[in-house]
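ARCHIVE CARD
SHELF: 3
SLOT: left
DATA:
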Amino acid sequence: MKEYDSVHVLYFFGSGPLTVQTVKKPAKTLEDLAGLKLRAIGPMAEMAKLLGAVPQPLDPGDTYEALRRGVLDGTMFPLEAVKAWKFGEILRYATASWKVGAAAIMYVVINKDKWNSFPPDIKKAFEEVSAEYAEKFALAFNKADMDGLEFLKSQGGSLVPLSDAETAKWIKAVQPMLDTFRKDLVSKGYTDKDVDGFEAFVRERIEYWRKIGKEKKIANPYE
């Protein structure tokens, strides 16, 4: 994408998908989310609204106590937070909604002029290490989610599956976010065809890496 033209991208990585995590009742349907006070900020807050919940913009450090006191009904975090922030001591359910939940995408880049000044052997070294660490980060974030799920279970909690029919309802509910994203990109000079291409690429990559994960027998919390 054009915003990366001024840098040389070494690799991307990301968190696990956001899941809806609740204290008192499992979110098995879209209707179950109606009126629930969920910790959610930024784009997550918009997603929570579209799903029918009431977003609460709390700092992660304040979330545990808010859950304990009943100020919150739940959260929207990757599963890793269930252990990392000890939310699993209070939460009892995490909905396996990865097809709906967003993920935090991060990147490692280098100044393009600096990159262009490197000789081929130095560039090769950067590329080899970057390829190695792209996979290390992917496995680390996946393991963090696995650890979060195990911690939830150890505290008496459970993962709540979504049926295909219910998943389709959740996807339809958050579609306005994608529509807004499309309008934003078009306003910046991209065409609808460009955006279609971005979306098709992301969908294809998701399926590709799920296939690779299965071939390598890498366990994940959702399958």
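SLOT: right
DATA:
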Amino acid sequence: MCIAFVAWSELQTPVGPSPLTRQVATSNDVAWLERLCSDHSYAEEQFARRGANTGGVKQNRSAAYVRLGAIGSPESLAAVGRIEKLMRDRSVLPAAAAPGAPVYHPAPHMSDSILRSAAETALADGRAAAAYILDWYGPQAVFLALRSHGSWSRPSMVPAPLPQYVFVKIALQGLPGGRLRFALSGAEPRGDVPAIHPTPDAFEVALAEVERDTDGDGWTDIAERHLGLDWRKADSDGDGIADGVDAAPDFGALQAPNDEEAVILRTAIFAMFGLTESPAALVVADNSRRVHPFGLPGPLLYTQQQVGVRVTWKITAKSADAATVEITDYEGPLAASGNDVGLKKIGSDWYVVSIKMKWIS
């Protein structure tokens, strides 16, 4: 395991310090910092203007949110409030497929990727279909997006097992009766390395099954069964928040406003994951206190199912006006990190003022 103690403002890429990250960490331009947080397209544009050596879009946005709290002026704290209000009731469903667009990972230390289809085909009804291999809700799985009148749907899970840690190729074919055939192939033999063949080698699905959303909450029945939600109820946990906009769709208890520890945890969780734009599921991996988060771009689940990125959190220090929350993430062997989120109480509210990566593996 490689251990590193580093503040986000000190992170470096292989070719040197990050100028945009350093600028964010020292800026007093409240309007600019707020726009980085609230306007994701603008944050991507700022990243692109400075090339790849900038710390990453998601990291810059979280650092801007932290900087606003650290400034601590009435103007900057009001900006924090506006950012949180903007994000509070956002959808946790994936966005429509946008080939060539970034696909963000929820963990700060994990690299991001580009959305590229594994296969595409034209359908008899005039639509197009594209298959993707994504790991948003656990081990890699097949997802399907459909294009109609020039617009793509959001990627939906397809009920098919895939071998893990193996490169899989897909051939896609439209069939009569609204069905699709997926033919899978794996690594070719190389020297003394045998060929690896996915199981099954091919499978068929009905488009109606992939698209079915019985309860009308935006999640397909397939995804809800996979995530442990109730595909027959638009509000699985009965808390009055529909699953499509519920940051914790399987946890119905809402915290009281005067529950200070819950407020601290919820604010720290938002600072770590709320500005990543990652649709991936987060799954609480231990007995971390259950809280109802806000502003997450993907669902957070309290389940023992092997889905999503495993996370933990706990308050490790707290005084009348300061607190530290340790948040960890685990994607697999040699893919995990631990971060200390520092908070300060200003008036009656808690604000994140620092995030420091303690270790990474």
